[in-house]
Write a structure and sequence with these properties.
This protein is of the alpha/beta class and 435 residues long. The protein has helices spanning 7-10, 14-35, 37-46, 67-72, 106-122, 141-153, 165-174, 184-196, 218-228, 341-350, 385-403, 431-434, and strands at 88-91, 101-104, 130-133, 156-158, 179-182, 208-212, 231-238, 243-249, 256-258, 263-268, 281-288, 299-308, 320-321, 332-334, 337-339, 357-364, 367-375, 408-412, 427-429. The longest helix is centred in the N-terminal third of the chain and has 22 residues, at 14-35. The chain binds adenosine-5'-diphosphate and zinc ion (ZN). Residues 250, 252, 257, 312, 314, 316 line the site of zinc ion.
Length: 435
Amino acid sequence: MARYYQQDIECASREQIKALQDERLVKQVKHVYDNVPYYRNLMDEKGVKPEDIKSTDDLHKLPFITKADLREAYPTGMLAVPMKDCVEIHSTSGTTGKRVVAFYTQKDLDIWHECCARAIMAVGGDENDVVQVAYGYGLFTGGAGLDGGAHKVGCLTLPMSSGNTDRQIQFMKDLEATILCCTPSYAAYLGESLHEMGLTPDDIKLKAGIFGAEPWTEEMRRSIEKSLGIKAYDIYGLTETSGPGVAYECTAQAGMHINEDHFIAEIIDPDTGEVLPEGSKGELVFTSITKEAFPLLRYRTRDICVLSREKCPCGRTHVKMTKPMGRSDDMMIIRGVNVFPSQIETVLLEQGYTPNYRIEVDRVNNNDTLDVFVELSNEMFSDTVKEIAIKEKELASAIKTMLGISPKVHLVPAKSITRSEGKAVRVIDKRKLHD
Ligand code: ADP
Ligand code: ZN
């Protein structure tokens, strides 16, 4: 039976949600216009006044906010309340440049934690669960968000933070953790370590994992589920909109419900900024309608996905987003072809390799090169040089079928690729060094 943290709102009718969004949006636009000079200027430049926004149907009239705006407004230019009313900050992991600082009032924290509590209950969690939070704590939002959510549900929370892998496994076993929260790449590493310590999923009590903060494939999901003996669920969020819990998967494992009472989602064409009809693939844009301290309107996430309102068997009515398979700026253009790292991950796992890989892109004599380093599996360890060369060719050809361009594949010894405890860094684009 499906479980909910706030059933009334999680299962509200479309009309109820729309009415709530309309009311909250109107209030939020006024709050931002009155208190954030940076955004007021953007609105003035576009000739939009708060009175022009009467419902979500007018959302498209508002200007976008981009990461560049946030960097320009660093550190307090987007703050909408006096600093003394804030109780916490978090900051992006800085994957793509200068950090962004987000502020929270106590009410902002409560709502964020409630969103994470919904995620925990959506995977079957309740107050009897022991939640091991192995996302990083500190400035990163992962640890704080799921920790707060676990407290709201009433779970025993193990605030492990990331790293110290042997201790993670020991506590997982000795304290009988039932739900694991961390990045998918760290979950894969924990699964690998469990087996190396001579344990199997039968030795632990884990039943579910809530994994996010980086792109991961369906193949990766299955591989983690097998190695840890659990069901693996996706969770999505970004520092700019509070952190994880903006959207979360239910037991249907088919897309993430967006918490629509707090966020309005739009899909736009990343090149023209035009709003696309529901069901189209494009860039996800969020408007926070309940945030007090850091209320971003029409924030461009650069994450590419599709929204769907198909009825979900879990009973929740909130719109679902597909797994973002990389940001628009994760995409590499290699020899004129668009390549997402996730496509390569899919092929590797399908072909029976581990999710330990590194992609190197370079430019030699004006030609782009693509090198994929993949670890040999234990079974292949005793293969001869000739056998390995054949496997490298086979894998290169499978990747070529997926991407349309040929990589050079290097099978490297097991354990030679650095494991990730947080967000994995899998691509090294050396072309940027020459530019
Ligand atoms: P940074 O931008 O520095 O990485 P964040 O730590 O806030 O800052 O990361 C947010 C980004 O992480 C999202 O915009 C998205 O690209 C990625 N992300 C978060 N959750 C997921 C997920 N479940 N699947 C894929 N990507 C995700
Ligand atoms: Zn659902």
